[in-house]
């Protein structure tokens, strides 16, 4: 599964903004080592988060535990009855990494869309090296 997992980090939530949309909150947080910052839109009815919470965020290319690509669409995976990476997390989305910007120094900014819900991460290149324009799974748990 190591090949499928592009990124894993624990973030401390520093701000939760729920004012703009009915069921969506925009989370801001920093990684435990303070190297990566992130902004994440989530459905707060499905996954409530408060300031001060720590969340574990994983980005992966597949939900298969052995790291192999899905032969069927992502919607059929849960219908097969087999255990998947999604079973270990509370909140799962499927989306696309649509932009990777390199900064002036050793920093990278990554933009990922999950059907209108966005994730933006900024940090050192060595932490975000696996990101490229491609489909991706977001998995989150407390």
From TrEMBL:
<keyword id="KW-0539">Nucleus</keyword>
<dbReference type="GO" id="GO:0005736">
    <property type="term" value="C:RNA polymerase I complex"/>
</dbReference>
<dbReference type="GO" id="GO:0003899">
    <property type="term" value="F:DNA-directed RNA polymerase activity"/>
</dbReference>
<dbReference type="InterPro" id="IPR005570">
    <property type="entry name" value="RPABC3"/>
</dbReference>
<dbReference type="Pfam" id="PF03870">
    <property type="entry name" value="RNA_pol_Rpb8"/>
</dbReference>
<dbReference type="GO" id="GO:0006351">
    <property type="term" value="P:DNA-templated transcription"/>
</dbReference>
<dbReference type="GO" id="GO:0005666">
    <property type="term" value="C:RNA polymerase III complex"/>
</dbReference>
<comment type="similarity">
    <text>Belongs to the eukaryotic RPB8 RNA polymerase subunit family.</text>
</comment>
<comment type="function">
    <text>DNA-dependent RNA polymerase catalyzes the transcription of DNA into RNA using the four ribonucleoside triphosphates as substrates. Common component of RNA polymerases I, II and III which synthesize ribosomal RNA precursors, mRNA precursors and many functional non-coding RNAs, and small RNAs, such as 5S rRNA and tRNAs, respectively.</text>
</comment>
<dbReference type="GO" id="GO:0005665">
    <property type="term" value="C:RNA polymerase II, core complex"/>
</dbReference>
<dbReference type="InterPro" id="IPR012340">
    <property type="entry name" value="NA-bd_OB-fold"/>
</dbReference>
<protein>
    <recommendedName>
        <fullName>DNA-directed RNA polymerases I, II, and III subunit RPABC3</fullName>
    </recommendedName>
</protein>
């Amino acid at each position: 599964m190591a090949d499928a997992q592009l990124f894993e980090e624990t973030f401390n939530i520093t701000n939760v903004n729920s004012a703009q949309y009915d069921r969506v909150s925009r989370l801001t947080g920093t990684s435990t080592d303070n190297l990566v910052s992130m902004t994440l839109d989530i459905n707060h009815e499905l996954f409530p988060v408060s300031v001060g919470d720590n969340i574990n965020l994983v980005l992966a290319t597949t939900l298969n535990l052995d790291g192999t690509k899905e032969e069927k669409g992502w919607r059929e995976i849960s219908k097969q009855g087999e255990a998947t990476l999604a079973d270990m997390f509370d909140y799962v989305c499927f989306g696309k990494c649509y932009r990777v910007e390199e900064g002036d120094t050793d920093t990278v900014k990554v933009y990922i869309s999950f059907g209108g819900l966005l994730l933006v991460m900024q940090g050192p290149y060595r932490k975000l090296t696996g990101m490229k324009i491609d489909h991706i799974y977001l998995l989150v748990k407390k």
